[in-house]
Every structure is written in C-alpha cells, then in structure tokens.
Amino acid sequence: MTTDRQRSAPPRPLVVRSRDLPTVAGIGVTAATKLEKEGKFPVRVKIHDANGGVGWLYDELEAWIKSRPRGICGRETAKERGGAK
Questions:
Q1: Has residue 49 been placed in a domain?
Q2: Does some domain include residue 44?
Q3: Which runs of E-coded beta strand occur in 1-85?
Q4: Which residue segment(s) compose the domain that 17 sits in?
Q5: Quick check: is 83 in a domain?
Q6: What DSSP character marks residue 41?
Q7: Residue 26 in contact with residue 65, Cβ under 8 Å?
C-alpha cells in the first residue's frame, strides 16, 4: 500500500555531486575539502561515470548536518561562547 507521502516525496539522491553540495549541506566544495582533511566531514566517494566525478553519500551528509551545532554560518552562538542568552 502506498501512502500520500510516498507518492508525493521526491526520491532522495544516493550520492550528492559537487555541484549540488552547497544546496544540500550549506557549504561549498572548498570548505568541505578542508573539513574532510580534518576528519570533520564525510569522506567523498568516486562516482563511476565518464567524467570520473566524486560525490558524498546523502545519508552521511544528512547525519553531518544533524550533528552540527545550531548557530549562524557554522559559528558558535553567543550562548555557546558563554555570552548573552
């Protein structure tokens, strides 16, 4: 049996390509590369296509997004710094 949500929700991509990373994760490829090297971002995977592209697994990006502190532009909030509430 199919629910309304199953019919109306677009399928999630399995892999997010570089061009779509800012839309999905809110950061660009350069920032992602820096965080990846620091072990703070999901590791990219090779996409076996004619262009030899790379991407990130959607589920890993989703988990990374959920693990991020809520603040402005990834910076600490005033409360996290011990400042105003």
A1: yes
A2: yes
A3: 15-17, 45-46, 54-57
A4: 11-68
A5: no
A6: S
A7: yes
